[in-house]
Amino acid sequence: MHTSDLRxxxxxxxxxxxxxxxHLTVRDGQVSEARLQIFEAPRxxxxxxxxxxxxxxxxxxxRICGICPVAYQMSAVHAFEDLFGVEVEPATRALRRxxxxxxxxxxxxxxxxxxxxxxxxxxxxxxxxxxxxxQLVTDGLRLKQIGNQLLALxxxxxxxxxxxxxxxxxxxxxxxxxxxxxxxxxxxLQLARATVDVALQLTPPEFEREPRLVALHHPRExxxxxxxxxxxAGLNLPAQAWTEVFHEIQVPWSNALQARDDSGLPYLLGPxxxxxxxxxxxxxxxxxxxxxxxxxxxxxxxxxxxIVARGIELVQAAADAIDIVEAYRPPEAAAxxxxxRPGVAAWATEAxxxxxxxxxxxxxxxxxxxxxxxxxTSQNQAAIEADIALFAPRVLGLPMDEATRRLEQLxxxxxxxxxxxxxxxxxxxxxxxx
Amino acid sequence: MNAPAPVIRLLVCGSGDRGDDGAPLCAxxxxxxxxxxxxxxxxxxxxxxxxxxxxxxxxxxxxxxLILDTVVGVEPGAIVELSLEELxxxxxxxxxxxxxxxxxxxxxxxxxxxxxxxxxxxVGIGGKWFGFGDVRSRALRDxxxxxxxAIAAAIAALATPQEVAG
Lengths: 434, 166
Hints:
The structure holds 2 protein chains of 2 kinds. Chain A is 45% helix and 17% strand. By secondary structure, chain A is an alpha+beta fold.
C-alpha cells in the first residue's frame, strides 16, 4: 500500500434503518472509492409474492418495512389497477392519499426528531437529546403518534396496514371517524410548522454539490400516488416506464441492488428532489413555509438541508390531510369489482424516502409470475457514495471519532432505510497512519 | 402504610398473523378471563404493534407497567422476565416489537422525557418462526403455559400495593 493510502471503515452505521457500513479508500488525500456496504441479509420479497393473488401481494409487500409500509402497498395496488383497468371512486383515491399523508408524517417525524436532529445538536442519540430538549423530543413523538394513529384508523394497524385492496378498501371509514380525527391533524399542522422553524435553526455543515434529481411530477398536486417521472435534466416519462431509462445493477459490496439511469450516473430521490422539482405543487401552507424559509436553493445544493425539506413535507402532509378529511364523503362501495388480466403491471409512487417502483408480471391464472421492487434507498446508494467521496477529504484530518460522526451525519441526511436496527459505531483505519 | 393498588398498563406487543410474534395476544386471551375481577379491573390493556416511547411516557407516577412481547436471543419457548430497568441496560434478548427504534432507545427516550422509567416488568417468550400466518412453532407452543403463568404472576406482583415511606 502507498504510504499515503488510508482505509476508513465505519463498521456499523447508527440511526439508520438497517444494517450497513461505510468503507473509504483514500489515496494521496483523495477518496478513490466510497462504498456504502449494505449487509442486511437479502429478504427475497420478490420471490415471496410469486404465485400469489394481487390482494395477497398487497399484504405481503407492506411487511417490507415497518416505517414505510404504505408506500409498498400504494405502488403495488396502483400497478395492478392500472393493468386491470380498475377505476376507483374519487373518495377511494382521496383516502389513499390520506393514508400516504399519515405515513409521511410518522416517517418524517421519526427521522427529523429522533434520528437526525441529535447530529446537529451534538448528541449521540435521541436519548441524550431528550434529557436537555424534552419538549423538542416530545413534539416529535407526538407528531409520529398522530401519523401512526391515522395509519391505524385507515389501515387497521399502525404499522403494516391491512385494509388496502385492489379496487378500494376492505372497509372505508365513516365520515364521523375522520372528522373526529381532525383536531389531531390541526395539532400536527402546528407541530409541523414549528418543525420547519426548528430545522431552519440547525446549522448545516458547509458542503455543496450539484445533485441529479428525480421525482414524480403531477400537474395539480404534490406527488404521492400519481405522476410522471421527471428529472432536473429534462426527463419526463410515465411512471410505468421506469425500466426504459433506469436499471438495477449489482455491486459486490452490497446486498442491495443499486440503480443508474441510461447515462450510468447516480441520481437522488426523496424530499430534496420533490421539493426542488415539485415546489409549485405544494399545498399553499407548505409553499408559504418554503417561501418564508428562503431555503429552496440550499435544499438543492446542501444534502444536510434535507431536514428542512422533510419539515416542509410535514406541513404538506398535515395540511393536505386536513383538506381531505374536511371534504371526505365515504365511497358508495368500499371496493369496486375487478377481474385480473394477464400482462405487466408497473407503477411508481413517492415513498417518504423517494420514488418506489414496482413491476409485476401477472399470468393467465391471475397470479403473480414475477416481481421487481426497486426501493428508493437502493436507488440513492450511488448518490450517497458520490457525495461521501466529495465530502470525506474535509474530515480526514480530524480525530477518528469526529470523522466518523461527520460521515454518519452525512449518510443520515439521506434517511437510508435498510431495515430497522441501530448500533453504536466502531470506526477502524487499516493502512498507513493519518 | 400501604397505597391503593396501582393501575397496571398492560402493553401487549406483536402481530397475530406473524407466527410466534402473536404469542402475547394469544396468552392474554387466556390469562385475562381467568383473573379475579378486582385484579382485572386494575388493568388498562393497550395493544402495541410496535412499542413506542409514548406508551411509557404517560404512565402516571402511581401506575405500573407490564410489557409482553416475543423475543429472540433465547431458546424458543423460554420465558424471560426482566424489570424495565434491566431491559433498558444492554439486554441479552431482543424484543420483536420495536420497529422504528431499538428497545434500549425506546426505554431510554421514555426515561429521559419522563425523568425515570415507570415501575414495571417485561415478560417475553422466545420465538422461533415469524413467517406469515397464525401458526406458532412447536417450541413456542410448548412454552405457552409457562408464559401465561408468568404473565399472571407479574400482574399479581405489580398489583401489590407499594409501601409508602413514612
